[in-house]
């Protein structure tokens, strides 16, 4: 299932709005989907959060051609259309097409057909500031060629109700962000993750792999108080190598807090700690988060590390006043996700959500690679392809059972039925895939299977 439908369903669940999504409308690549909602108020509330949905219309007619749509408009109850089409209301009609470009004259012809004498439209046309805006939408599919069909597959006509929040993507774009890192999550996906986590006013949200805090910015936008941890001391203190091109050194005021301050969310900032996400005992019992939203390191651009246990490390003698840093060891991806689920089971409130990314080597992927925990239930699993062989899955889990540890039985633990990285790290799989694709491109005839096995 695509992000767009998952986001819509999650927002509607958060709002408590019953709805029916006609997902079959999206077949053949159509971008238009009918959603049955209880009221216009619910529709506007949905569009106040979604960043993936462009616009929402009150549907007045649909069919395979304009004639069918016109007939449906004429059959509408007069009391439902008259407030928007009477002589006292100005209007405009916008013609939009998908997969095909229409000339201005073709658009005008369609508008003239809809407003011909005897139609429901009695008001004055106002193209700049109308009281009501109507849209004629046409979808053309490709008939096995690079050219679209001559006739539309589907035609819709509706009254514009509300736009989505796509402008927020530009508002929070990383290009304008004060503090970024190599793996900063882009604004669109950050807000989608916050919507899947159902973040709302006064929630308490944690990112245990916080980096530059992109996910905290998105969560604070929806009204949450935010906190995070990260093991990278140099990054959090603006001493790491700059991530922007031509930037020689980081500014001393670069920080997660400065990002939140940039957008007016400083009052939502709790704190960010330099800490190892695998050390759960640093959190006091009874601490509960409403959501955990995170993107763990994959070990490609940023290494995955954790602090070595004292018993496993070589303690070296130093001067008493010398500054000391804890020793680190490689953190296996499988262990990262098991620790993450164990943490969520302990510190999420019941009903709280964990949203995270799981990197995948597609030829080896199976549903059994998804980490599991007795207290958590997978609600959604959506793929973002990154190449022909590499992708990542956006996983949303809900805490359905309270975590109990009364000392009389073994603690419930996370598990991975089939560990995707037990025999080979994601970094090894990733670069093997890159080399295989490069060889296939250079050779012009190598198959993926041959490259993978070599």
UniProtKB/TrEMBL annotation:
Domain (Ribosomal RNA large subunit methyltransferase K/L-like methyltransferase) ranges: 176-306
GO CC annotation, single: cytoplasm
Keyword Iron applies: no
Regions that span the bilayer: none
Keywords of the record: Cytoplasm, Methyltransferase, RNA-binding, S-adenosyl-L-methionine, Transferase, tRNA processing, tRNA-binding
Job of this protein: Catalytic subunit of the TRMT11-TRM112 methyltransferase complex, that specifically mediates the S-adenosyl-L-methionine-dependent N(2)-methylation of guanosine nucleotide at position 10 (m2G10) in tRNAs. This is one of the major tRNA (guanine-N(2))-methyltransferases.
EC nos: 2.1.1.214
Catalytic activity: guanosine(10) in tRNA + S-adenosyl-L-methionine = N(2)-methylguanosine(10) in tRNA + S-adenosyl-L-homocysteine + H(+)
UniProt-recorded name of the protein: tRNA (guanine(10)-N(2))-methyltransferase TRMT11
Pfam family, one: Tmrp11_N
SUPFAM superfamilies: S-adenosyl-L-methionine-dependent methyltransferases (SSF53335)
Subunit field text: Part of the heterodimeric TRMT11-TRM112 methyltransferase complex; this complex forms an active tRNA methyltransferase, where TRMT112 acts as an activator of the catalytic subunit TRMT11.
A biological process from GO: tRNA processing
InterPro entries, alphabetized: DNA_methylase_N6_adenine_CS (IPR002052), RlmKL-like_Mtase (IPR000241), SAM-dependent_MTases_sf (IPR029063), TRMT11 (IPR016691), TRMT11_N (IPR059073)
Subcellular location per the Swiss-Prot or TrEMBL entry: Cytoplasm
Gene Ontology molecular function: tRNA (guanine(10)-N2)-methyltransferase activity; tRNA binding
Domain called tRNA (guanine(10)-N(2))-methyltransferase TRMT11 N-terminal: residue spans: 25-166
Enzyme class: transferase
Similarity comment: Belongs to the class I-like SAM-binding methyltransferase superfamily. TRM11 methyltransferase family.
Domain of life: Eukaryota
């Amino acid at each position: 299932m695509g992000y767009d439908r998952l986001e819509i369903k999650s927002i509607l669940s958060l709002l408590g709005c019953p709805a029916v999504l006609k997902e079959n409308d999206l077949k053949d690549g159509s971008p238009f989907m009918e959603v049955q909602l209880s009221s216009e108020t619910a529709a506007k509330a949905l569009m106040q959060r979604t960043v993936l949905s462009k616009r929402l219309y009150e549907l007045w007619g649909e069919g395979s051609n304009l004639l069918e749509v016109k007939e449906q408009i004429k059959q509408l109850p007069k009391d439902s259309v008259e407030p928007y089409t009477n002589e006292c209301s100005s209007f405009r009609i916008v013609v939009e097409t998908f997969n095909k470009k229409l000339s201005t004259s073709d658009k005008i012809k369609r508008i003239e057909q809809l407003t011909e004498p005897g139609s429901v439209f009695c008001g004055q046309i106002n193209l700049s500031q109308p009281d009501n805006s109507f849209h004629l939408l046409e979808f053309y599919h490709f008939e096995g060629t690079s050219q679209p069909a001559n006739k539309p597959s589907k035609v819709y006509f509706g009254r514009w109700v509300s736009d989505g929040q796509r402008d927020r993507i530009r508002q929070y774009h990383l290009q304008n962000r004060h503090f970024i890192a190599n793996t900063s999550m882009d604004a669109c996906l950050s807000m989608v993750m916050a919507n899947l986590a159902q973040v709302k006013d006064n929630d308490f949200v944690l990112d245990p792999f916080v980096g530059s805090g992109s996910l905290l910015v998105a969560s604070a936008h929806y009204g949450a108080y935010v906190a995070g941890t990260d093991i990278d001391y140099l990054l959090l203190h603006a001493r790491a190598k700059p991530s922007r091109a031509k930037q020689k050194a980081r500014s001393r005021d670069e920080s997660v807090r400065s990002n939140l301050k940039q957008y007016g969310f400083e009052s939502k900032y709790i704190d960010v700690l330099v800490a190892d996400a695998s050390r759960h005992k640093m959190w006091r019992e009874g601490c509960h988060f409403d959501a955990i939203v995170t993107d763990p390191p994959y070990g490609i651009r940023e290494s995955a590390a954790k602090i070595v246990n004292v018993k496993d490390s070589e303690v070296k003698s130093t001067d008493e006043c010398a500054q000391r840093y804890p020793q680190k060891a490689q953190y296996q991806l499988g262990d990262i996700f098991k620790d993450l689920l164990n943490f969520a089971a302990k510190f999420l409130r019941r009903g709280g959500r964990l949203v995270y990314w799981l990197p995948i080597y597609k030829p080896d992927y199976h549903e059994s690679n998804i980490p599991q925990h007795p207290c958590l239930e997978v609600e959604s699993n959506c793929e973002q392809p990154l190449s022909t062989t590499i992708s990542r899955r956006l996983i949303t889990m809900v805490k359905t059972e309270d975590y109990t540890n009364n000392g009389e039985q073994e603690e419930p633990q996370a598990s991975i039925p089939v560990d995707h990285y037990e025999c080979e790290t994601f970094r090894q799989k990733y670069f093997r895939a890159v080399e295989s694709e490069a060889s296939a491109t250079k050779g012009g005839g190598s198959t993926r299977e041959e490259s993978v096995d070599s």
